[in-house]
Specification:
GO terms for molecular function: nucleic acid binding; S-adenosylmethionine-dependent methyltransferase activity. The chain has helices at 34-37, 50-54, 75-80, 89-100, 111-128, 135-150, 174-177, 188-203, 228-240, 257-265, 278-291, 346-357, 371-374, 405-409, 415-423; strands spanning 12-13, 82-84, 105-107, 153-158, 183-187, 247-251, 270-275, 296-300, 313-318, 358-369, 393-402, 427-435. By secondary structure, the protein is of the alpha/beta class. The longest helix has 18 residues, at 111-128. The protein is globular, with a radius of gyration of 24 Å.
Length: 436
């Protein structure tokens, strides 16, 4: 249980009355026109409708001890934070400047104040990074710094999931993940993650090629678009014609899309699903119970480390992340890193370990994309590492399928990304290997 002492009053930010001549159009004294010209959107939190609040959540088995969850803000950090219980636009801009400089802030009155500070932080970031000439570098640095700033914005949450600042979204995952806590303090980006993840869990993900919705648990990677790589896999499986007697491994299962594709196409096939993320393992096990699917074993494993007793396999399907992990991102208790990007040694390890997990003549299918190459994040596909295993794995073919522009650009968050989506050739790939 976390208890919060009232922070020292010298840290409290009180609203002040402004002179009548400055009651409208308040701007920063250092950049008098920046706020008036630049009006970025505040980060949006998904609000729950009354119908959603009354909706019964999908079935969940008892939580496993290994489940990852956001770490609440430590009491010492809360005590040292500015206590924000209101403020004018100018004062919230000043708070944003302090947060940018490294100060933390805890919001107690209105959720809107936290969103306004995040909006002001966008302005501050634009001003401080104006000297960077490379657009891609500036974009990455901006995202990194704003993510760090969001970790210094706190809000109190009750054991029922209600935010203390008025107007904030209810967090349905809090009573599930923190059932013994009276009240907690969370960082702004964790609040957003808990809220958005709960909406997807509650409402589910609908794929046209699956008979039921999937309800991914918190911290589990999933994507609704593109889905061309899943359709490419289905078409390839129909041509491959695997036997029901085959033992298939869904390596890096995530929310289980490939596992459920396999079971919907081959109901008697034996499938093992594995993932490094404990939340993904828990999520797929819960989904299997909701669907009533038998004959699937789910294992937590870093690639093949804990799969020796399960193999060898007739077919391994791997849908890895498509983007390399930035050097500054490190796995920790406070950040979700499972599934979003791949570490530098992933594919070297994959091709070194995969042959031993396959039967002679067994198949390895890797679903990938040219996304990172097109964006200039890598000079060549990391799957070129397969050449190191050429004596054990034969590359038979690479199937490709274009991703329609409309499906790409709709999910980009910036104008620069939307422009890129229309100009670049984005395609998904299926690399087919056979064990010699």
């Amino acid at each position: 249980m976390l208890c919060l002492k009232q922070p020292d009053k010298r840290h409290r930010v009180q609203p002040r009355a402004l002179p009548a001549s400055r009651s409208s159009g308040v701007q920063s004294p250092s950049k008098p026109r920046s706020l008036a010209k630049f009006k970025p959107r505040a980060p949006k939190a998904v609000r729950s409708s009354p119908a959603q609040k009354s909706k019964t959540p999908p079935f969940l088995p008892p939580l496993e001890p290994s489940i990852w969850k956001p770490v609440p803000v430590a009491q010492e950090e809360v005590d040292q934070a500015l206590l924000v219980d209101g403020g004018s636009p100018l004062e919230l801009r000043q708070i944003a400047e302090k947060v940018w400089a490294g100060q933390s802030a805890c919001f107690t009155r209105r959720w809107k104040d936290l969103l306004e500070v995040r909006k002001a932080l966008n302005v501050v970031a634009t001003e401080h990074l104006a000297s960077l000439q490379d657009a891609a570098e500036a974009h990455r640095e901006r995202r990194r710094l704003l993510r760090n700033c969001a970790r210094r914005l706190f809000a109190e949450v009750s054991s029922s999931g209600e935010l203390q600042p008025a107007g904030g979204p209810p967090l349905g995952y809090v009573p599930v993940l923190y059932e013994d806590a009276a009240k907690l303090y969370f960082r702004a980006n964790d609040i957003t993650a808990l809220n958005v993840a709960w909406q997807f869990f509650l409402n589910g993900l609908e794929y046209s090629f699956l008979p039921n919705k999937l309800h991914p648990f918190f911290g589990v990677y999933f994507t609704l678009s593109p889905v061309e790589h899943f359709q490419l896999l289905r078409d390839w499986l129909e041509k491959l014609k695997p036997a029901n007697s085959w033992h298939v491994l869904d390596l890096g299962t995530g929310c289980g899309v490939i596992t459920f594709i396999l079971r919907s196409m081959y109901s008697d096939m034996t499938v093992t699903a594995s993932d490094l993320c404990p939340n993904a393992v828990f999520s797929v096990r819960a989904e299997l119970q909701r669907w009533g699917v038998q004959g699937v074993k789910v294992v937590q494993s870093d690639l093949f480390a804990k799969l020796e007793e399960e193999g060898p396999f007739d077919l391994i399907i791997f849908n890895p992340p498509w983007v390399p992990r930035a050097p500054e991102v490190q796995p920790s208790a406070g950040d979700v890193v499972f599934g979003n990007d791949y570490p530098a040694d992933l594919f070297d390890r994959l091709f070194a370990e995969a042959p031993a997990a396959l039967r002679p003549g067994g198949h390895l299918a890797i679903l990938f994309s040219n996304y990172a190459e097109s964006r200039g994040l890598v000079s060549q596909s990391p799957l070129k590492a397969c050449e190191k295993a050429a004596d054990q794995l034969e590359l038979l073919e690479v199937h490709e399928r274009n991703v329609p522009v409309k499906d790409r650009s709709r999910h980009r968050q910036t104008r620069r990304d939307k422009a890129w989506a229309f100009k670049q050739d984005h395609r998904v790939e299926l690399w087919h290997f056979v064990r010699r």
